[in-house]
Amino acid sequence: MSLVTARNPPDPRDLGSFKIRRCAGCGRLIRIPLSRCNCTRCNDLRGKELEEGPYVNGTGPYCDRCRREGNLTAGRPEVAVAVCFLTDRRNHEVLYRAAECLERVVDELREDLRFVAVGTPVDDTYFNLRCGMEAGIDFGIRAQMSSIFTHMDPDYLIIAHNPVRKLRGRPRERFKYTIRKHVPNLRRVIVLEDVVRNEDFATVYRELGREHPDAFEFLRSDEVGDLIGALRE
User: Which residue has the higher pLDDT, 45 or 11?
Assistant: First the structure.
């Protein structure tokens, strides 16, 4: 389905009652009527779960063909991709740089890994449509590092965010503790240094990188080959 077709359904009464996502299996654009959407967020808003829909076993969405053929991401190693606040107007310079990098990574590893974008609802939707990642907001994952580990069990963590807020004092220590606590369960933590320009956050990652040199890898968004290699280890 083309984006133009998806935005212009046959019945005008349906306008505003659907969402556009890329299929997690094949990357095609799909139009999902909210009345038939069974993602965690829609189920919560509806007050009941739908037995069938485009989401399967907490992953998706999937087009009809991928659901029929079993082309699902469930069971693949999970990659949580922190992209918080990249769509903020103050971050557009790094947004396009990060998106170009991650789009190439997802295209290369789509059949091997499950990529989930975690940011604001706008961030999640952008990276779903641009890169084909699954949108964390659909699974109730909020733009917080602790939310990733509450709702997911990731094998890899890619940090490609640039928060616009400060991180000082006790919030900084809690943030650092959250990541440190879960590092032993991660195969790799990859930090895109040229994207994370907020020094309050960047210093936390550098400190943790010195504590866990085998787990952390610091790369730039133009080092796509190295990023793909790190995710294949």
Answer: 45
| Sequential DSSP letters for the chain | --HHHHHS-SSGGGTTSEEEEE-TTT--EEEEEGGG--SHHHHHHHTS--SSSS-BTTB----HHHHHHT---TTSPEEEEE-TTTTSGGGHHHHHHHHHHHHHHHHHHTTT-EEEEESSHHHHHHHHHHH-PEEGGGGT--SSHHHHHHH---SEEEE----SS---HHHHHHHHHHHHHHGGG-SEEEEETTT---HHHHHHHHHHHHH-TTTEEEE-TT-HHHHHHHHH-
92: closest CA among 41, 180, 164?
Answer: 164
User: How do residues 8-38 score in pLDDT, each as one tens digit?
Assistant: 545 544 445 889 999 999 999 999 999 899 9
